[in-house]
Automatic annotation (TrEMBL):
It comes from the Eukaryota. GTP binds at residues 19-26, 65, 116-119. It comes from Mus spicilegus. GTP-binding protein involved in protein trafficking; modulates vesicle budding and uncoating within the Golgi apparatus. Mg(2+) binds at residues 26, 43. SMART domains: ARF, SAR. GO terms for molecular function: GTP binding; GTPase activity; metal ion binding. Keywords: ER-Golgi transport, Golgi apparatus, GTP-binding, Lipoprotein, Magnesium, Metal-binding, Myristate, Nucleotide-binding, Protein transport, Transport. GO terms for cellular component: Golgi apparatus. The keyword Transferase does not apply. One of its GO terms (biological process) is protein transport. It is found in: Golgi apparatus. This is ADP-ribosylation factor. Belongs to the small GTPase superfamily. Arf family.
Length: 162
């Protein structure tokens, strides 16, 4: 009975969602939380929302991506179980992801990369963006395409950690 109750108990996962400015982090947070698109302004600090999915409560921290805010990202690393790094697939110039992968505090965090803005004609596919435990999911924040497939991967990572 104890194993059944443990299986049925809701799990919690602290997720840090980062990426460069205008990649779509806040749009994804509200699409997952509310199921709709809301008017978004650049995130100055952070947004937090809880997303319930498949018996897991994801506490999602969406941290602003402007260049002056990026040095503050490290203050959110502690106790992060999953990292969603959002890549604007239409932006071929910026490479902040590689810098984050070198951070010691994130060594054990599962990494999900959302290759967002797949609806744009110049978007790189997941293979173009790629010894870390990570997964790249092509997404479109405005339609929701790919978002839950990404959460499925994170859910499986959480199950495998326990």
């Amino acid at each position: 009975l104890g194993m059944i109750l443990a299986f049925l108990a809701k799990k919690e996962m602290r997720i840090l969602m980062v990426g460069l400015d205008a990649a779509g982090k806040t749009t994804i947070l509200y699409k997952l939380k509310l199921g709709e698109i809301v008017t978004i302004f650049p995130t100055i600090a952070f947004n937090v929302g809880t997303v319930e999915y498949k018996n897991i409560s994801f506490a999602m921290w969406d941290v602003g991506g402007q260049d002056k805010i990026r040095p503050l990202w490290r203050h959110y690393f502690q106790n992060t179980q999953g990292l969603i790094f959002l890549v604007d697939s239409n932006d071929r110039e910026r490479e902040e992801l590689m810098r984050m992968l070198a951070e010691d505090e994130l060594r054990d965090a599962a990494l999900l990369v959302f290759a967002n803005k797949q609806d744009l004609p110049n978007a790189m596919n997941a293979a173009e963006i790629t010894d870390k435990n990570w997964y790249i999911q092509a997404t479109c924040a405005t339609s929701g395409d790919g978002l839950y497939e990404g959460l499925d991967w994170l859910s499986n990572q959480l199950r495998n950690q326990k």
